[in-house]
Amino acid sequence: MHQDIQEILLTEQQIKTRIQELGQDLLRDYQGKCPVFVCILKGAVVFYADMIRAFDDHCEMAFMQISSYSGTQSTGNIVVRQDVSMDLTDRHVVILEDILDTGRSLQYVCDYLRNKGAASVKICTLLDKPEGRAPGVTLEADYVGFRIPNAFVVGFGLDYDEYYRNLPYVGVLKPAAYTK
Ligand code: IMP
Ligand code: MG
User: pTM for this one?
Assistant: First the structure.
């Protein structure tokens, strides 16, 4: 275990098993529909790479980068840094995200992609912190890997100021690690 990690919340094996189940859920709903899986960079990239391989049918890949966070706080100001490069008109879109917290980022992305004329837009998130939702945000994910308590977590793509994305598990940081 990495020296900055206090506790492992989800092991590599737990995540792997759950992703296979999510792949089956997506297959049940999207088989034959050639969905576009939109990866929200950078946090979702690790989850994304495993998810698309758990979906055993035709699909297409798209990438989008937004930013809203600084340190451990969501700023609520969402900026599109990289847009999807393909036409989404009449396509079935599934957004793959690392974590749903306040819900502001995904609310924004959902509306943004719907405005591009997608036939449907659904959300698949590795983690959900239900207690984190901002006032007035009613958005929920359609597919959830794990519901977790309201703590700041890192690993499996999730970062603290760009560190720890490469950890193969999801863990809680030691308080001392925040001084970096
Ligand atoms: P939301 O708009 O507050 O739902 O923010 C979602 C984004 O915030 C995610 O894509 C993450 O980048 C970041 N985020 C939220 N909670 C955590 C966490 O516990 N660890 C790392 N990043 C987080
Ligand atoms: Mg982040």
Answer: 0.94
